[in-house]
Each structure stands twice: as C-alpha cells, then as structure tokens.
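Raw record, unedited: Sel1 repeat family protein
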Amino acid sequence: MSFIGIAVGLAGVSLISMFLWMLSLSLRKKRMEQEKKERDRQYRLTLARAKEQEHQERIMKAEYGHIPTILYLAKEAERKNTREALYWYEKAADLDNVHGMQGVIKISQLHAEDLVLKEKAKFWKKCVKAFNGDLTSKYETGVALIYGQGIAKDPERGLEHVISAAELDHIDSVLFLGQWFQAKDNPLSEPEKSLHWNKVAAKLGDKRGMLSLGKNYLKGVGTEVNFFQGCYWLERAAEKGSPEAMCLAGEIWIDKKPNGNAIAYTWLFMAAHYGWQPARQLRDKVGNSIGVDSVVGLQSLTKPLIRKISDGKVPKHSLIRAFNKLYKRKVPIPKKVAIPADDLAVDVLAAEMSQHQHSQDQANPSNLNQVPSMSSEDLEPSKANTDLDQHQAQPLDFSQTPMDSSFKQ
C-alpha cells in the first residue's frame, strides 16, 4: 500500500508540476505576444509618423513647384480623392507640364455634370495642342487666359501666349494684338503697339490688318493723324475686297472738293453691292448730291471694277493709282513698291474715268473752274466720320434700289 500511495503521490506531484509548467509557458507566451504586439504598434506608429513626415515633406516640395513630386501626389490621390488629385494636376498644368494638363482633362471628364470642370477640360485641351506647336491653339489659350475663359484671369501670361504666336506670323494673333493694345477694356493699353501689330498684319497682306491700320492713321491711334496714309490702307483693303474698307474709304471722301463725291460714290456703290448695309444710305445720299447722270455714269464705270475684285484680279495699287492719276490726289504709294511694266490696266481705267469726268464737266461747266487739288481744310481729318467700327457685315443683299437699276448683277 505504501508503495502504491507513494506512486500516486508522485504522479499527482508530476501532474501539478506539469500543469504549473504549462501555465508558466502559457503566461510567457502571452507576455511575449503582448510584447510583440506592443513592438508592432510602436513600429506602426513610428512608420506612420515617418510616412506623415515624408508626406508633409513631399507636399512642401510640391508646393514649391517640384514637378515629379506634384505628379506623384496627384497619382496617389487619384485612387481615393479625385478633387485632391485635380488640385495637384492643375498645379502641374499651371507649370506648363503636359502630363498635368492631361490629368486635369481626365479628372474633369469623370465629372461630366460639372460645368466648371467641363470648361476647364476645354481650356486644357487647347493647352495640350498649343504645347505640341499648334499656333491657333496657342492663340486661343492666350485669349482664354486674358478673359478668364475656363481658367482664372491672367492677362500677362495670356498676352505672352498670343505674342509668341504672333511672332510666328499667326494672323489671328497679330490682328488680336492690334485691337487689344487700343481696347477700352485693356487697362494698360499701348496705342503704339496697336499701330505696330496692325502694320505687321498689313504687311502680311491681310485686308483686316490693312483696314485696322487705316483706322489707326485716320484716328491718330499710336501715331499722328494722317488722312492720306489712312486713305491708302483703306483702299488697299478695298482692292482686296473688304466691303467695310470700301464703305469707310468712300465715307472719308464725301464732300471733299473738287471730286471727292465721285470717289466716294464709287467706293460706296461697291460696298453696298457686297452687302455692307451702312454703305447703302451713304451711297444714296451722295447720289442725290451729284445727280442722276453722274450716278448712272459712275455705276457703269464701277461694274467692271466689281467683277475684277470678285475674281481677285485687281493688280496691287491699280485702283489707288487710277484715282490718283485721274483726280490728281496725293494718296502715297510706297517708293519701294515697283510699278509694273505693264501699266495698261491703270491707264485704261484712268482713261475711262477721265472720259466720264470730262462728260460730267461738260454737263456742269462750273466744275471746269475748279482746281483739282485739295486744301488742308478740305481734308481736315476731324471731319471724316470714322465711326464705322461698330457696324457688322450683313448677309449679301443682291436686290437693286432704283439708283442701282442701271447695274445688272
């Protein structure tokens, strides 16, 4: 019995010892797990603090304009916060980065219902094309920046875009600058630059530039008032088929002695034919002052001129020289312009006009006593009405008034 009791006692002690050992192992394991969890927590906190610090450093770097960092932040934000991504893409785009521009377009298209973002997308699409060398897009980008179309207003930056396109002879940019530097809504207008860019447009052969340059001289914008220079550029534009230039070229000669009304009627009749509505009333007013016979003769004379202008077959300066030759005007032609060896067209035109004028003088003997020259009083620029800037071209109207009846279109 004693042996069995001892064995049982030893077994019990062993079991208790094993239980205590297992308990101690369990407690130790729990303690180690707790310590590991604490270490992991501390590590995560340290890592999070490091990431936050790194993120803040990236933000600071991006705010100072580091393009790769800006694009990295935009890409990161794109997965969870598109508005934040848009912020960073716009920042890159503002720094002329094409990837930033494309990012703005992509994010904007995700919000098609947002009209503001829709306009942003349009603007940055133009910018991408401008970045790839498209001059029209560069011009449109500049105008959008000047007027704040799809982007915050930045006239200085917009002007840089337009000028860069204009310096490469992009005609719409050149014409825009000619108007912008004398525009009323431009707080920093520079009339001299308006004159410069209109000269550039005129030298590029654009009739709109010639018209604008003529107005510069007539109004004294960026230069002294010069009636004859203004007349020259208006008639150059008229030769190229600008009805507005024809109208204004006619208007400035109204009542200029001795033959201004004949010149005026010729240009006004052509302008009215091409559908420029303001010319009609002026044409009829001049026609009433010169009489029916003169009107019929001038309409007959003008008919072939209209045909040549419509066909684009008017030699450079031919009409100007013909008027100068017939009426002994002083409208200047640049000396560097070579006069064609075959000047027959001008001579024939001048002869026809001279014959018509001779017939008119015979019908009105009082005209024979007039000296064919123009006094400074007759050509006082302030008397020339140049308020046609606000007129808009109307659709062509081929109907004839009673005064047009001799002219068959």
